[in-house]
Amino acid sequence: MGNLHTIDLFDIGLEKGKHIKHLPLFYQIFGQPAHKAPVVLVNHALTGNSQVIGENGWWNDLIGDGKTIDTSQYCIIAFNIPGNGFDGDPTNLIQNYKDFTAKDIAAIFWKGLQSLGITELFAAIGGSLGGGIAWEMAFLKPQSIRHCIPVATHWKATDWLIANVLVQDAILNNSKNPIHDARLHAMLLYRSPQSLKQKFNTEKEKDRELYQIESWLAHHGNKLQNRFQLPAYKLMNHLLKTIGETSSQDSWETFSRETKSEIHLVGINSDYFFTPDENAETYHKWKNTGLKISYHEIDSIHGHDAFLIEFEQLGRFLKPIFS
């Protein structure tokens, strides 16, 4: 349990017309066996991976024995977005990153689940990019997810998000130090001015000319550069702008008529990346249509990254679903 496994997928058709003959899909399983307990799919964010719990687990405070998503009660499955490099094999990195969309990844995840003999999910949950992929999975199979839980994301990329993806892509393709420099910019999207003020208060490093905020950003740039590969970062960044790319008002109306899913939106009041008004607008637009939809908002100064920080609030919102 928790070891990295592989599913070999073949003959994958992509939204933009390209065809993949062979695609390895890497995943981990935590908690109960897949056919002995309800299945919860956890989708990782841009720089995340399938290691949701355990050593280096990025959602240890939320998922585990006796925690909000209880591994003694549920089977937890987490796929790696193909090309994210978590398997450590450079031959599996995707070079033609613009061939893929978030909808392609959602379809690939469904194929992976079907290979495991799983046709229905108790829940699909993810933050940021992972939440966008959860939305795409729900649109693809509106009767196969009981609880869809998109956290700090939206069902369709906005102009603001698309613009920032372009800036990131330009840095990644033109900088002499691409991962490091792109991460500097990205961290300013993931946090808020208030969060940085609380953390650093415009103070300098001891015996140095650098401000603490400068050292902190450089640290995150170096850290990501040491564990992430350029083709992987290009792909993950690109996928953000494709969330909901083929979805429309008609898609929503069809989905709302056909789905059996309960939609649990979770926004963050200080999120500058996926702004909370997007989720609030979605909720108010669809709450009286018969769609089972709810909206919760994390109160935090920490911006987009609050979904990785404010575990107590997030756990409180999720507890009624998983209890």
From TrEMBL:
Annotated InterPro entries: AB_hydrolase_1 (IPR000073), AB_hydrolase_fold (IPR029058), HAT_MetX-like (IPR008220)
GO molecular function, one term: homoserine O-acetyltransferase activity
Hydrolase is among the record's keywords: yes
GO biological process, any: homoserine metabolic process
Domain AB hydrolase-1: 38-198
Pfam families: Abhydrolase_1
Keywords assigned: Hydrolase, Transferase
Catalytic site positions: S128 (nucleophile), D271, H304
UniProt entry tagged with the keyword Isomerase: no
Listed PANTHER family: HOMOSERINE O-ACETYLTRANSFERASE
Designated name of the protein: Alpha/beta fold hydrolase
